Amino acid sequence: MAESKSSIFKKFLSYIKNIFSKNKKEEYRSLEYASQSQLIWYRFKKHKLASLGLTVLAILYVTSIFAGFVAPYAHTERIDDYKYAPPTEIHVISEENGLRTPFVYSYSKELDTETFQYEYVIDKTKEYSLKLFVKSEPYKLLGFIPMEHKLFGTGDKDAPVFLFGTDNLSRDIFSRILFGGRVSLFVGFGGVFLSFIIGSLLGGISGYFGGVIDEIIMRAVELLMSIPKIPLWIAFSAAVPRDWTAVQTYLAITMILALVGWTGLARVVRGKLMSLKNEQFAMAARAAGASDFRIITKHLLPAFISYLVVHLTLAIPGMILGETTLSFLGLGIQPPAVSWGTLLQDAQDLTVLADYPWHLIPTVFVIVTVLMFNFIGDGLRDAADPYSSK
Amino acid sequence: MQQDTLVEIDNLKQYFAIEKGIFNRKVGEIKAVNGVNLKIKRRETLGLVGESGCGKSTLGRAVLRLQEPTAGDVYFNQENEKVSVLELNKKEMRKVRANMQMIFQDPFSSLNERMTVMDNIIEPLVVNKIGDKASRKKRAGDLLEEVGLRREYLSRYPHSFSGGQRQRVGIARALSIKPQFIVADEPVSALDVSVQAQILNLLKKLQKELDLTFLFISHDLGVIRYVSDRIAVMYMGNIVEIGEREELLRNPHHPYTEALLSAVPRAGQSRNRIVLEGSTPDPINLPSGCIFRTRCPYAEEKCAEQKPEWENIKGEHFAACHFKDSLELKGIKNRKRA
Hints:
The complex is a heterodimer of chains A (390) and B (338). Chain A is of the alpha+beta class. Chain A is 60% helix and 13% strand. Chain A folds into 2 domains: 91-171, no CATH class; 176-384, MetI-like fold. Chain B has 2 domains: 5-228, P-loop containing nucleotide triphosphate hydrolases (Rossmann fold, 3-Layer(aba) Sandwich), CATH 3.40.50; 252-337, no CATH class.
């Protein structure tokens, strides 16, 4: 199991390396022998923003999968005496020694006698070096790999590192964002996968057989599309029992997102099948004596799979935003489980926003993720378009 | 069926229903092919010419049963046995299909871009379970050389080829199961003129070598004239005139044929083009009597009342016009020099 994980990881690395590979000559020599999907990949790699998107998303996904190692704290861990601590400043210039390796100062909390609020005062007497692979309490990565090191930290309890500050229960927001990504980043895949199955099945039936079935399915799609999304989500998620476990709720949310989100895909599949089934290459296959099944699976589906991929890529951010919205409204993932939406719930309070603005940092992650997915979708669409210059 | 007739088209009709409203009420029919009779002889090329939208391609597809014709029948002479193509079930149809193939108009959409040239060519073999992997590969390679491409191109994808090369691949695919009869649906109209000539010569060469029979569909009289043994002229779903190539070109007996011939540009001659008035009639409501009368410069009352019968002119030359004997129509060769 561990071995397969590492091989996946290796593949991932070579994938990223490939994006920036300089070996273009080899590519062009083989261009004539390249299949459509290889051609799409070549063109995709030329799309700078898409490559950026792929890289950034790869980093986001990897860090949230290995959040246990990357994040300095567990997502529910309360670090006593550090309620609403601001983000730790990381210094490289020491007052005594000038430029040095990154280090932090420790905080201490003091009561402001005028406002009666606690304020954090930086204690500059001691510099705590930031170290990589610092020793920590033993824990289990991904629930089964025993580890006793974290990616970074000071290794000293007196000088904690809160990259994005802490919240009202003195939990590290950076760690919570990474753990929250496990829900928020992956809900898109689950939702898109489910809506892909529903959408391509119903759209496929609709497009290939036409007639009354087509009529019924398409009217259903229009009905579903005409209902505003957020009330629909809310109605569905209100039906999710409160006493379900975090995993059950997560699956339920995924299902809800898929049930609302398949309509667009069904339309794409239907339209594509309708136009492709009368294309000359489909006619040629029919003239060769191929069966309907062979025509659909061998000729029609491969002809628009790239469009599906584009559509799905662009659908993922919608799913992520959906989950965030639901959780933000308190209808999605329930605490203590954490997602980007639940993190933003804390930012609903105006005083919190005014005094502790670092609660808004999860928004940046949502925006970046959605943006990067859109870049990738954009790049894929350009690459898959057969009419663009080759 | 005569021994030398390979395909016989008997009163073939292809109507497309026009549906309206939420209940798909049938409000009319487009009569794309409206009762066509043709006999195609073994080893000949029958050129089918007519303007865009006259139903040429629809006829071609209906003959191969790529769409189900509304009425009529198509007979195929399979080992001297007259087989009604339209009455076959799927399994029998597959057998006959092996003898009837099609070359398509647009080389850019007729090949599957996701498959290699080889997979495209051997598709009919795979579907009909002919041969094994090695023999199919050999056949595909032989075919590529036959149509003037290099054997190494087998593992390439269609996107790396030009229009002319793609059309050659399309021809190789049509030939792969050794058909006797090929419907060539505007095979050169999407190509450059210089490439057109190459493809036409290739088709002629293949016909001679492989004893092929062609139904050659084109709107270009020049192309038709170059490849055909006999020419059939189609107008609004009907054949209006048919005859041996030179005979038909020299002595057209239908005003529509004359108008078509007058539109062919020739070097060194001024053209007395006969410009037809108006546009083609509505295929939903075809005119009474002779379908061409609305645009015919010689039309008289009789044309609106009576549908002209097919009548023999000379040898194999037939025309459907009331005044075919009285009209002095101009062909290509007996045109006066300017």
